[in-house]
Amino acid sequence: MAELSQSTKNVISKYALWKNYLNPKQGVATIHVDEVALKVAAFYEKIRTIIDWKEEHLMRRAAIIRKIKRRFFDLELNNSSNENMGEALVLELIRGGYFPNDKIEESKITDVQKIIEKYTFILQNSPKDDKKVKDSQNKILEIASCEIEETLYPSIKEMALIDYMFDKMQERIKVNDGVYERGFLKEEEKDIQIYIAVQQSLFKFDDPIIIYNLLKYKYPKWNNPTEEELLKIAQNIYKMLGNIEDELSLPIGKKFYAICEKYDTPYLLFGDILSSGDIEKISGEIKEPEVLEKYVKEAYSKRLKNLKTKIKRAAIYSTVSIFITKILSLLIIEIILSKILRGNLSIVSILADILIPTLLMAVLIITIRPPSVKNINLAVIETMKITYDKEKIDTYEIKLSRKKGVITRFILSLIYLIGAIISFGAIYWVFNYFAFPISSIIINIIFIALILFAGTAIRTRSKELTIEDDSGGVLGFVYDILLLPITGVGQWIFNKWKQYNAVVVFFNVLIDMPFSAFLEFLEIWRYFIKEKKEDLRQ
């Protein structure tokens, strides 16, 4: 029988608290929304899911961000009070299926209202002479959405696992003195970089949630400040956000992420084990290494199966999302250009625009290789290393890459440029050979770049359980030289498009707001009819 480490005992205790939180509380009033309104709203949110596709675990918060920004926008336009914004927002989120009906306590409405008032105060009392006021205000609303989500559905389990991995990585990650001496990192910044990397690798958190968690980490009273503390936060909010963004963008952070990404598998599997049954029973059984090995292999098999399903779903949703929000608008442009430049519409060009990106995504997904048998054995070994108390622990060193001279950097940049010329040139040659018009060629290059970027992100996600080193082989080497430049262009286009996405703007302005008002009216009308029917029975 092996001794569990103290950090393992801590995470087991936190998971026990999470299980206890899930138990329904007797005699507590919960929030109910009309079933018809819920079904109508849920259908609409499915459509929005395709348009605003993100990682599945980010979809709920994306909806909160969208709705809270719209409601703050309404507030600003009408110059009215935000007194009932909390209740309206919570009801809208439950109608959309983002939170369960009849499960959330009514007291949460008051909590959400307080959060809205807190961030309203911060926005009203923040410096007005900042050069990036609008951008910073958007970030503040995104942070508010993180706090609202946590209030309505506390991330006890996720934060327990983050704290577990953070505790272990603090012991294991060592920074080479050369990193400090050359000014790439300050000693006091090491823990922050580990905390960021753990969140990015373990749950693929995006910047808003990481910023929110860092604010709580740095300022323990963030969620419940006094009036004086809140005023101080408001007056210094842009400076606080600027410091955190600097920490998020440190180049050395990529090295912390690479280590955490490689070794996050045992933590994910251990979390799955604790989630699978009775905590007390499991915590007693895993003291036997043979039993823990059985649990790890079962958890690994289930997670691998679920991962395959998620990858297929992500491929479908991301492809459809790109078609609707990006390709559709470009196709319209191409149709217009074809009419102007050629006088007729090329059906072949339109079919190529649709089929080529779809087939490319299919190839990217089909060619994903599952982890080898060796990987599951590594997962078992690494899980045992973090579970039990060990005198000797593994260490991972953060050190700088060998400094490249001017000539070496020039040669590498030249190779990258040549690869880009060959890749884009080959695409242009193929389409030109089949007599595609120049407008169609340009649009197809954009399509291919976007799909390559989306497909690469999905392929990266498919390595969630991979611990073994992947050399990539000859095909990987060729991919890096020829397709990496196109993928980079796809990322640039994707990020730029988010700022000027006409389809999303159309839904937000012309559909989202009126539809929300319609649902509120529908629910009120349904309750009115219900009351009238009750009157008839008397």
Instruction: Output the radius of gyration.
Output: 26 Å
What general outline do the C-alpha atoms trace? globular
Distance between the termini: 69 Å
Strand order of the largest sheet: 1-2
Helix-strand category: mainly alpha
Q: Can you count the beta strands? A: 2
Strand content: under 5%
Number of helices: 22
Average pLDDT rating: 80
Description:
The chain has 538 residues and is mainly alpha-helical. It has a domain of 186 residues. It has 22 helices and two strands. It has a two-stranded parallel sheet. Helix 2 packs antiparallel against helix 22, helix 6 packs across helix 10 and helix 13 packs across helix 15. The chain starts with 5 loop residues before the first helix and ends with a helix. Keywords: Membrane, Transmembrane, Transmembrane helix.
Secondary structure blueprint with pairings:
Blueprint: H1 6-22, H2 35-51, H3 59-78, H4 85-95, H5 107-125, H6 133-152, H7 156-172, E1 173-175, H8 177-181, H9 190-203, H10 207-218, H11 227-248, H12 253-262, H13 265-275, H14 279-285, H15 289-341, H16 347-366, H17 373-387, E2 396-398, H18 406-433, H19 438-461, H20 473-482, H21 484-499, H22 502-537
Parallel strand pairs: 1-2
Helix pairs in contact: 1-7, 2-22, 3-4, 3-6, 4-5, 5-6, 5-11, 6-10, 7-9, 9-12, 10-11, 13-15, 13-17, 15-16, 15-17, 15-19, 16-19, 18-19, 19-21
Q: What are the main properties of this structure?
A:
538 residues; mainly alpha; two-stranded parallel ribbon; 22 helices; 75% helix; globular; transmembrane; membrane; transmembrane helix
